UniProtKB/TrEMBL annotation:
NCBIfam families: surE. InterPro entries: SurE-like_Pase/nucleotidase (IPR002828), SurE-like_sf (IPR036523), TTL (IPR027746). GO terms for molecular function: hydrolase activity. One of its GO terms (cellular component) is P-body. Residues 3-218 form the Survival protein SurE-like phosphatase/nucleotidase domain. It comes from Aspergillus tanneri. Coiled coil: none annotated. It holds the Pfam family SurE. SUPFAM superfamilies: SurE-like (SSF64167). This is Survival protein SurE-like phosphatase/nucleotidase domain-containing protein.
Amino acid sequence: MHILVVNDDGPPSSRLSPYIRPFVNALQNAGHLVSVAIPAASRSWIGKAHLIEASLKATYVPPDAFHDDATWDESTTTNQDRNTPKPEWVVIHNGTPASCVQLGLYNLFADREPIDLVISGPNHGRNASTIYNLSSGTVGGALEAATCGKRGIAISFGSKDPQHIDTIHAASRLAVKLVNHLYRNWDERVELYNLNIPMRADVETRPIRYTRALPYYWARGYLYAEETVDKANGDIQTSQADSCLITGTKPANVAGGSRLKERNFTWAAKLSDMKKALQASEEGTDAHTVLNGSTR
């Protein structure tokens, strides 16, 4: 089977994207032809968006040229042998999961056999509940595949904490088994599947369940904080005490460049209430299932 793999975490990185390399290796070890198209930088929370005013550049990178910090060896030469068992990955500057799917399906791999399945992930952390599912770039990649008439599977490995390599390999093996099973037994009423795999050493022996998504809605503004200017030194700070400090120049209305009222906001996600809701979720939901150590 020819599988297109995209993600929203970007190139291999021990901090931001630790799962994609072992997962691709597991797919290849299972005998699949794997084509990889990934954004050059993390695109978490971007959903199915395209950056319509951005020019995209695709760079073909041999998989062995990647470092563990989302960079790669620029001096590596492109491999002209298209029959290599581990073909080059394509890194797309200004790419999103959705644009990686579009280019992967229609532009980047025309010299290979037709793509049978699109896998988006594995995400660095779970995607459970309606808010995570609808905000996720990982789920967005699978959704883009569905809009292109292709079967799509979103996969999330349910932890952002550092994991032992044996646990990552176990999760990757299980993910490949599930991919093979779902593809062979695809329900024709389904356009995409969203898998969440808990990160634990015994994951391959844990139950696997079909679930429903936990409904969750924002009760207030959890995602952005307003910036305020420290007039003494010109630094910009967010108005939330626990948000990050951002340094920079004064906004235009402070510097006198504009007479229009302006307000500045920065990403400062506060997800503690959401995490409590996920932990209290009822049995049968995606959040309850993965938090209790089962794959869903």
